[in-house]
Structure formats: C-alpha cells, structure tokens
Amino acid sequence: MAQLIQTYPTDLMPSEWALIAEFFPPNKRGRRRKWDMWQIVNAIFYITRTAGQWRMMPKDLPPWQTVYGYFRRWTRQGLWPRINAALVERVRVQDGRNPQPSAAVLDSQSVKTSEGGEQRGVDVHKQTPGRKRHIVVDTLGLLLLVVVHSASLQDAAGGQLTLQRLFNQIKHSLHNRWCRLKLIWADGAYAHMVEPVRKQFGWKLEIVRRSDDVKGFKVLPHRWVVERTFGWLGRYRRLARDYEHTVVSSEAMTYLASIRRMLKLATR
C-alpha cells in the first residue's frame, strides 16, 4: 500500500485510517486494485466537506467514476451506519462512558433540496421546501441514527418513523446496539408520542418545553445537545443543502460527516 500522505485537510491521518481500515478489507479475488481504499475514502470525505460535484473532483484524487461507484456500493451495503456505530462506542469508552447509551435526544432539521430527487415537500411551519433530517444522538451529541424524509411530514410522524427504525435496529442487530436505551428527550412537537412510545417501544419519552415567560434565546436542558450536533454537521457543506437524489444517499452523507468528526475525537 502506498504511504498515506495528506493532500487536503479532509484527508485521513494514518492513526485515523487505522481505526476504520478493517471495514475495507483487501481484494482477494480478481485483478489488483489500482487505488488504495484510503484514497477512495479520502475522496468521499472531500466531497462531503466541500460539497463539490462528483464530476468536478480534483485530478489528484481517484477518478470520480471510481469514487462514486464505491460510494454507491458501500451505501447499499449499509457500511456507513456500521462504521458510525463502532466509532460511537469507541468515543464513549474513551470518554469514560458505557459503550451503549441509556439516554438520547431526538430532533429534526429542515433543509432545502436541489432540483429533482425523491421525497421532497414543504415544511409549512418553516416554509422550507425540501427534506427533513430526523436524528437521534446520545448525551455527548454523537449520532446514533439519521432518517431523511419529505419536509412535509410532521415532526410527530417523522419522529415515530425514526424511533421505529431505531427499535428495529436494536431488535435485529447481532450486537444489540443501543440496547440500554431507556430515556429519550424531545421538544413539544413530539408531545403526542409519549404514550405510544412507551407502549410500543418501552422507552420513556420526556418532553423538554420552553417556558412562555422566557423572552429571547435560552439554553434548554438536554435539547441543546442535539442542536449542537446539527451545528457540527452543518460544517460539512454537503449537508448545508440536500443535493442528493435519494434519501438513502442523503442519510449516507450525514453518517459520513459524523464519522469524520468522530475520527478526530478518537485520535486527538
């Protein structure tokens, strides 16, 4: 394998690549690969951070057709959520926590889309045409799950969809990811979900409300954690607007931003 050299700030350091190299095993069949896997991953991180177009990838990176081909293949295989989950456990242990969180925070973010693509709508409350990202984070703000859907879907319905997917992951996961989860915090938009969540999933959904007496900005307990995570994700320009044609690809980009940030946390 060629020596790892950092060309762009988004490129992985050797210590960072060592944490995820096992997810990209060497090719044991067919002809030898022309590009090392770390070069492909670096190119994907470059796109995620800069919001560049696949076809306009710099010439000193692998060909865009090759990079995009791997990105699509790994997205279909569900590779990004698996890497993300492994890094969440590592960062939590590094912080002195149990690898599996017992509490989480739920919230959504509406983002505009570019032209075309599936599941596009209008968030009537924020007057935002595009999609919504529903995310679940732990108390450190680490991403546990992201679900992307039309912005026209109300928060309660989107939240139910998100928690259902989280429950299915726990139920069907070989490693029982997040099986210690007992408590989820959310804002008032999810108030009608409290009893259904308790009956269907066995979790306590606690609503953190904003006081009507408070004027201006106020940091709310627990809810600020997920808002900070949205701020972290917003540093990756590919997420500033949803450029993806499919929601699966949009979710993949969110996981990639989370993975890149956690790699920095795990090796600092």
Structural description of this entry:
This protein is of the alpha/beta class and about 270 residues long. It folds into two domains: about 15-75, no CATH class; about 100-240, Nucleotidyltransferase, domain 5. Helix content is about 40%, strand content about 15%. It contains eight helices and six strands. It has helices spanning about 15-20, 35-50, 65-75, 80-95, 155-170, 195-200, 225-235, 245-265, and strands spanning about 105-110, 120-125, 130-140, 145-150, 185, 205. Strands 1, 2, 3, 4, 5 and 6 form a six-stranded mixed beta sheet that branches. A hairpin with a 4-residue loop joins β3 (about 130-140) and β4. α2 packs across α3, α2 (about 35-50) packs across α8 and α4 runs parallel beside α8. The longest helix has 21 residues, at about 245-265. The protein is globular, with a radius of gyration of 19 Å. The model has no long low-confidence stretch (mean pLDDT about 90).
